[in-house]
Amino acid sequence: MTDTAPRTVRAADVKQIKEWLDRNEILLVDVRETSEYDAEHIAGALLLPLSSFDAEFFPSLPGKTVVLHCAVGKRSEAAGKMLLNEGHKDIIHMTGGMDAWKAAGYATEVQLLPPGEEEKTAKPVFLCPRPGDVLMGEYMKPLGISAPELAQNIGVLEGRVIDLLAGDTSVGVELSLRLARYFSTAADFWVHLQLEHDLERARHKLGEQIRREISPRVSSR
Description:
Elements: E1 10-12, H1 14-22, E2 26-30, H2 34-39, E3 40-41, E4 46-47, E5 65-69, H3 74-85, E6 91-94, H4 97-103, E7 109-110, H5 117-120, H6 131-143, H7 147-154, H8 158-166, H9 173-183, H10 189-213
Parallel strand pairs: 1-6, 2-4, 2-5, 5-6
Antiparallel strand pairs: 3-7
């Protein structure tokens, strides 16, 4: 009988993953983009960006379970499904991603600025890039693709691509499908980049206010 059950990626919380990592029992893989990793990452994590993720040639270490993580958990789950479909086993993704890791108070490695530079950079550091930045830095620039060429190849107006690269427009589901088809990524990859970007900025702008104004619902029983 053929097994038609859907393949799901096992999930583990940051507390469990921290314990495994401290005991050197896992291979921790960061599937965020290079700019995100450079800004802040978990010590010992291997960087394999989802934008260039190749499940067929994914590395493995005997006796170690692979744990994937990203910013909030969406990209790591997508990468896990790709690995399962390629025949890999015992794949886990970290729920909540880097957000949950830092919320738990666990350490990360960050880029250190020269003395005096901290005062010049008072603006917050955002870890979830704009989809347009990923598009240009990880795809268009390395492949030598211009905005007019990309627009023609995916069937949209050139202005839409230019606006996306400038951060003046967002990725919707249709554009995500068009980009995914052209660059052979997961169908929801681009729209998830947009979601993570928007959530991070909304959390920075309104998160503290929302925590003050709204209390979690508790059971009346």
